[in-house]
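Section 3.1: Structural characterization of target chains.
Under the original work plan, the team committed to producing a structural model for every single-chain target entering the pipeline before any wet-lab resources were allocated. The record below documents one such target. The sequence was received from the expression subgroup and is listed exactly as submitted; it comprises 83 residues.
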Amino acid sequence: MVVGTKEPSDPPPDLVIESDVTSKTTIEAYESVGVPEIWIYDSGELTIYLLLQGKKYTKSETSPTFPQIPITELIPQLLEKNW
C-alpha cells in the first residue's frame, strides 16, 4: 500500500522526487511498490532512475515524463540560482 492511499490496490505514483537530505527512502522501497520513475536530488546533482520491466532501477539521463527537457541539467541550475 502506498502511503496516503486508501486501498492496497491503488497504483503507485508515476514519479517520485526526493530531495530530503536527512532521511532518504531506499530505492528498494520504491521498487517494491513499482514507482516507474524516481528523481533524487543530492549534493547539487539530480539523478533519474527508471524502473525497467518492473524489476530493477537503471540510471537515465532523460525523463520519459519530460523527454524534451534536460531535467538533470536544468533542475540543479534552477536550484543553484534560488540559493
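The mean pLDDT is 86.
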